[in-house]
Structure prediction request, 458 residues.
Amino acid sequence: MKVVRVLLLTIIVSHEYHWVDDTVFRVFFRLWGIPFPHTSPNYCGTLDAPSLSYPEWRRLLLPPVSTTTAMIFFARNLPFLPILNHRSSSFISPNCFRSLVFFFTSEARKRSPKLSFIAAYLISSIGLSPEKAIEASKQLRHIKTPSKPDAVLHFLTQIGLDDADIRNAVSRKPTLLCTKVEGTLKPKLRFLQQAGFTEPQIARLISKNPFFFHRKDVHLKIDFLGDLFSSKEDLLNAMIKDTFLLSSNLDKRIIPNVSYLRTCGLSNGQIGFLMKSGFRLITRRLESIKNAVQRALELGFPPESGMFSSALQSTCHMSRASIDAKIKAMRSFGLSETEISSAILKAPQLLFLSVKNINSKLDFFVKGAGSELSYIISHPLLLCYSFEKRLIPRNYVLRVLRSKGLPERKYGLFYIMKITDAKFTEKFILPHREELPDLYQVYLSACDGNVPAEDNFS
Prediction:
């Protein structure tokens, strides 16, 4: 192991760094799974092997040296580095050592590119992967010393961010490490605390949306948006799910959009609900919002109804052509315009289904489950349940019970598909565990996509 340590130190020295920060050493040795060694701070030509330990000092200053110089340096100091084997203490010969060093330094240079200081820092101090560190370092080329990143990391740790939070924040916004702690970070933190956010909430916001630190009017936006939410947690979720919320212009976009939605009959609570649900609403262009409102009105949703905001969730994120294609798919099964409108009014989320999904489920209920189309369209939420995880497995259990002539309680199809898995098991599987002891396991297997033929069931 000590031979390997010497070789690794040689490789590091042979790289032409005017100074090598201890983070570079940690990265290099961590990649090889070897404890981080250090030399004596007195750079006098000897290496005291017993003193190699975790750094007692911050940096090792080294002149730029070639591979040859590095080999000569370590070869001369070889007597101070005993190599122990399982039988006796011995020393490696200088010639053998030079050969090994030349081989390993050449191979290392062939296999991996030299890491920049900041990339090495991101790997060792934050735990980023080499790929992400190299990508993030492109925005941080101007950083030559660890003083400012160290200060930022210390600040983030103090306010409650753990390693994973910091990695997420830096991955999303690498220039966060360049931010002034006293001039930018602390004032923003004080505002969030005064606004009523808790430390865990602030940590989540920084981790998921670190861009807010660089927004000058963030306090004005948070003050304005606070009226749309009943709690700080809801406001936090909105700021996390819509990263454009704090970057959009307050006077030219956010305020006009909110004012327009209010004129359409939406309450503050309805607007806030749409925002915290992850729908980019008030950060869209006003013309886009007007088009979405118009499509919702055309579908028959009155602005004063509670379902109007739900309809906007659909119409905001799909074109008129997409909506028309889904209505056409339902019409192909013989449904009237009135029936289709009624179904969409009851379950606006129908519009999120693909044309293929709509066709498959309607076909399944009519042909596979033997249901009347009028019943399905009067209970449109049936079309919104998972095909593979709920509809097919439960219908399979019902068919098995019928095929075995077992008594079946009279429940409507909507109730059967709506209840929880636990309730379904209690009502339709456990009562028949004596006649069909394997039914529960087969049902679980069906939920995983393995549906056997009923006549093969025993």
Remarks:
- The first helix runs from residue 2 to 14.
- The chain has a mean pLDDT of 77.
- The CA atoms of residues 175 and 190 lie 21 Å apart.
- The beta strands are 19-21, 59-61, 83-84, 89-90.
